[in-house]
Structures are given as C-alpha cells and as structure tokens.
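Marked as duplicate of an earlier ticket. Keeping the data here for the record.
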Amino acid sequence: MRILKHAMRSSCIAVTRSWEARAMSHFAGRPNVRSFSTVEAERPSFPPVYLDTHPIITVPLRTLDHRKLSSGDYVDLSDCRAVAVDPAATSYPDDPSATSHSMGTTAMDSDFEAEPTLMRPYINYGFRQKFNANYQVRVLQYLPFPTNTQGFFYFRRDALPIAGSVRFRVTWSDDLASFGRGVDLLTEHGVQWQIPLLAIAHSPRYELLRTTLERDGLVSRRVWGHCATLLEIMQTGRMNPGPMSQLIFETGESFYVDAARASQQIIVVGDETAVTLRTWDILRPVYRSASSKRGPWPYDRGRLICYLVKLPEQHGKTPSIGVRVLRVVEPLRVRADCTDDIQLVDDFKPRSWISVQGMPRKVLSRNAADKAAESVKRALLQRQLTFRRTAGF
C-alpha cells in the first residue's frame, strides 16, 4: 500500500511540473502571448485553448453499487483520461480522443451545446487553467490519472443523502475481495477525488451517471428533487458545481486552499441554501490604510489542507465557524512587491487555527443581514461529524 501511494504521488508531481512546460512550448512565438500569470481574473469571453495530449479510454459503466461489482468492472486509468459509456449501447467510438480537443485547438462555449461529442461524460483527474499576462488566452488542460490508478468506480453513500459522490477505489487486482482493502483515490492536492452528486445533478453531461444511480437504487427521486431545489438557489448566487468543485457539507471535511488564488471558490452547502468560501475569506490580510487595499494579493504561492471547525464559544455570543490547518502542502510565500502596510495572517503549523493577531479568523459570519451564510452556519453546527463518518457505503 505504501508503494502504491508513493507511485501515485510521484506521478502527480510529474504531471504538475510538466504541464506548464508543454503550454509554454505550444505558445512559443505567438506575439500576443507573454509569460503566464497565476493572477485570477473573471471568466473572459474569448475562446479557451485546450491542451490535450493524453489518451482517452472508454469506461463501460455497468453499475456504481459496490455490492454489484464484478471483475469486469475493473478499470486501469493509468496516465489516461476517461469517458463513461453505456455498456448496453450498440456502438460507441473506440477512440474517444479522436473527437476530443487536440493540442492547441479552440472551442467556443457554445460548441459544448452544438457538438454532441463535447457533451460526453468525460472523467478527468484534474485540470489546469491559466491566462497570459494580458488575459488574452485562456489555457485549459485536463489532467490524466496517475500511474497505477487501477480499481473500481463506485458511489459512496452518505448519511446526508445530497453529500454522496462517485469515487474511485484503488485496488491491487480485479479480485472483489481487494475492494475492502483498497483506498479511495486522492487528488493531487491530497483531498478526496470525487464527482459530487450535486455536480451529477447539475450537468447534462452526466445523464449516464444519473441513469446508473437510479437503476442501482442508490439515489431516490426525493434526493434528486432536493438537489434540484438547492441547485436552483445556488445558481442565483453564481454557484455552478462541477465534477472538480470542492463542496463542503460538514465541519471536519478537508479541502485545499491555493494561497495564490484569492478567488478560489469552495462551496459550503446547508440544508436550504449554499454559500461560497474563498481563499480571500480565509487568508485576507488586515489593511492598515486605504492605499494598501489597492495593492496586489500578498501571496503568490502556497497550498494548505484545511477543515472547518466550531470555534470555542464566548459567553453571550453566538457560535462561530473557523478554519484549522490540517497540513501544509506548500508553505505560503509573500510576493516580493507586497506592501508592508498590511497585517498578514499569523504563522501557523498543522492543527493550528488560521488567525490574525492571535484571534481566530471567523468565516460564514459576513453580517447579520446575510441570511444564507447564517443558515449554512447553523446547518454545519447541527450536523454531527461522527454520524456522517459512520455512514459507510
């Protein structure tokens, strides 16, 4: 097991280090492309440029119920992307990569509605998105799964039904006895790889997954209805959960924070609504002057694995939610041109709070008038972590 985890981690590192070199090589010589920047921007209107250099395999999706799996459901995703197909279909392309985006091709967003092949249920390990210095080109690359990603897709049920997700159980062989001894795949950031149920309900791309879940009896009509209601509310707040979105339903659930991306979005889901939690909310500095607010975001590097926790109650005050660091994947690095006229978050180590001047940073506490944030906070405080963790499959 230790060898398997090491191999997966090494592959993740290789993917992370190699993709930027390929992107820069592809755009070499273009007059409108300068050095890439990690600075966030609003989604531009120009077409994205796709970098697809990895093979795509078809995965016949017979079942997502771990009790119905057979050796024929065993999949080797090593160094590939995947597309789910209906095993009962009379035919489907043997080489999905022939109809996918090739190196350097572009596609307008409208193409995803006009071209059926682009609406297929692709399953990716992760993705990269970057802009050039003038935000003139959006570069997208969907990442292949790491080496030794072999095992079974299955649906992980939860005591909170809307929190279920499709996961991938890494096993040593196609013997079903190895399923219980396997481990669920992690992302390159060290958190759970999964396709959330809300993302499956939201995207027309995943109709096959919805059909499979219904056929297996894993998701009821009532749960789909709850998902639809939540999604309608979420879309009014510009929240569109996708297969790689981070959705949090409970205190104690881990999520990653990219310190270089102030607008990185984590969706925190309550019983009746949801709110976004951004890197800005977690790591924002205290500005000592009006001029310092106009400066750049202070961090240009750093990745953390964190989780939400209930802060110690203070007499006469309502309970609050804070953020605790589980692991420092990459230390925070402050920009060289960062002004000194700001107070950064305090130094921290694993298991410590995110705090400023010794006071834990409160989240989901924007103002008393923000009813959505208050509703989500109450839901998180009421849900019991131990109950969720014993939900099983």
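See parent ticket for discussion. Residues 1-44, 94-117 have pLDDT under 50 and may be disordered.
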